[in-house]
């Protein structure tokens, strides 16, 4: 074998579909075009000041310069438990049912290593955040795709999953509010997932990264609010989107004690926890005044209204989402996800994410991230209108 021939797990990675867009983006940029990037799901707003101040103080304390505990500082895990109680009415035992993560992506990617054996099936939605499938792949598991279709409100159709697949599966991943479709789920859907998971002995992994980004007074639920969920579910949360802290790398898992213990066992053999100063900043975020979160939602809501109204006026078809900071837009007649994204970029310098990049069932859509200021959104709409779709 050639020395640097990649391991099978890397060779099995899905093709990186944004390569062509990345290449075109560089090319268009080199032409001197003013690019408006509506592609990245990374908040443009800064981390709130009180969180930065807490970090500054914590970083000066030598006690925080040493290895942190593997499962997270007690103070951080208690802050998470109190936040859950406050926000969702869910009681958690901080030391058994909460785990600090180096961002929720880290926890999601490592979770299958704890519970998935070679060849085991994992139920994975599509279109989706790629990490559910990739974490499964790295653990030697096999993803069974649950397509998210518009006619089902972008919820997986559990009845369409063959019985023999479901009974060989170990884990089901779900994510609401959803990236990339911006769909939301109600408690009735979560109850159906609980019943399904109980029937087939599955662990439910709920990615709840966007529960705090919501509009028009809508308040997304935690999966753990459903009766019986604590026996079967681990929920992944992140401070990244809620407090504009994507660069800080802090998130947490909450839920069933055995699921938390398994993930903790994997992590204690791979990483050595989250920098304590960052956890102190996390405590300041979770325990502090939540006005910053409400303000953030107002900003995204205004951007959403501007962009949705503008796109509709330009002839596009889309729903006004209740949560997340994405718009999931149907491509007009005569286009594919890729050809539409290419035309927007080449003719108008607009970067959007083609839906098929999140999995085949995303074909026919593109995703817009509301991570640009209102004036840039207005500029983008002007350019789209001028293109006459
Ligand atoms: C942004 C995002 C995350 C969070 O990632 P972090 O690692 O916590 O920064 C998780 N899931 C989805 C669907 C996301 O979009």
Describe the structure.
The protein is an alpha/beta fold. It folds into two domains: 125 residues, Aspartate Aminotransferase, domain 1; 239 residues, 3-Layer(aba) Sandwich (Aspartate Aminotransferase, domain 2). The chain is built from 15 helices and twelve strands. It has a seven-stranded mixed β-sheet, sandwiched between helices. A three-stranded antiparallel β-sheet has the order 9-12-11. Strands 1-10 form a two-stranded parallel sheet. Strand 6, helix 10 and strand 7 form a beta-alpha-beta unit. Helix 4 runs parallel beside helix 12. The radius of gyration is 21 Å and the shape is globular. The protein starts with 7 loop residues before the first helix and ends with a helix. The model has no long low-confidence stretch (mean pLDDT 97). Bound molecules: pyridoxal-5'-phosphate. The site of pyridoxal-5'-phosphate (PLP) has 14 residues, from helix 6.
């Amino acid at each position: 074998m050639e020395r640097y021939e990649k391991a099978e797990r890397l060779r099995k990675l899905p093709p990186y579909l944004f390569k062509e867009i990345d290449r075109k983006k560089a090319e268009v940029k080199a032409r001197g075009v003013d690019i408006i990037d509506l592609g990245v799901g990374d908040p443009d707003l800064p981390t709130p000041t009180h969180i930065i101040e807490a970090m500054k103080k914590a970083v000066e304390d030598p006690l925080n310069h040493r290895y942190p505990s593997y499962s997270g500082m007690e103070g951080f895990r208690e802050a998470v438990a109190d936040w859950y109680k406050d926000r969702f009415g869910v009681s958690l035992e901080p030391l058994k049912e909460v785990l600090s993560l180096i961002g929720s992506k880290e926890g999601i990617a490592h979770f299958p290593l704890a519970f998935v054996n070679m060849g085991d099936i994992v139920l994975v939605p599509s279109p989706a955040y790629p990490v559910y499938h990739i974490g499964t792949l790295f653990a030697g598991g096999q993803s069974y795709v649950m397509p998210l279709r518009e006619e089902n409100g972008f919820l997986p159709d559990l009845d369409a999953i063959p019985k023999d697949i479901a009974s060989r599966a170990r884990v089901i991943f779900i994510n609401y509010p959803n990236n990339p479709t911006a769909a939301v789920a109600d408690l009735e859907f979560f109850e159906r997932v609980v019943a399904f998971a109980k029937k087939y002995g599955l662990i439910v992994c709920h990615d709840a990264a966007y529960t705090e980004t919501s509009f028009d007074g809508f308040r997304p639920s935690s999966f753990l609010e459903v009766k019986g969920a604590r026996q079967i579910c681990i929920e992944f949360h992140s401070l990244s989107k809620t407090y504009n802290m994507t660069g800080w790398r802090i998130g947490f898992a909450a839920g069933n004690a055995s699921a938390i213990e398994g993930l903790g066992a994997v992590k204690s053999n791979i990483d050595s926890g989250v920098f304590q100063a960052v956890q102190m900043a996390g405590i300041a975020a979770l325990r502090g005044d939540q006005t910053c979160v409400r303000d953030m939602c107002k900003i995204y809501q205004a951007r959403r209204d501007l962009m949705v109204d503008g796109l509709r006026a330009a002839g596009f078809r889309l729903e006004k989402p209740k949560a997340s900071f994405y718009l999931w837009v149907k491509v007009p007649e005569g286009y594919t996800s890729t050809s539409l994204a290419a035309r927007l970029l080449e003719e108008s310098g607009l970067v959007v994410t083609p839906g098929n990049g999140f999995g085949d069932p995303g074909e026919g859509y593109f995703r817009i991230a509301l991570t640009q200021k209102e004036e840039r959104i207005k500029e983008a709409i002007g350019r789209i209108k001028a293109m006459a779709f």
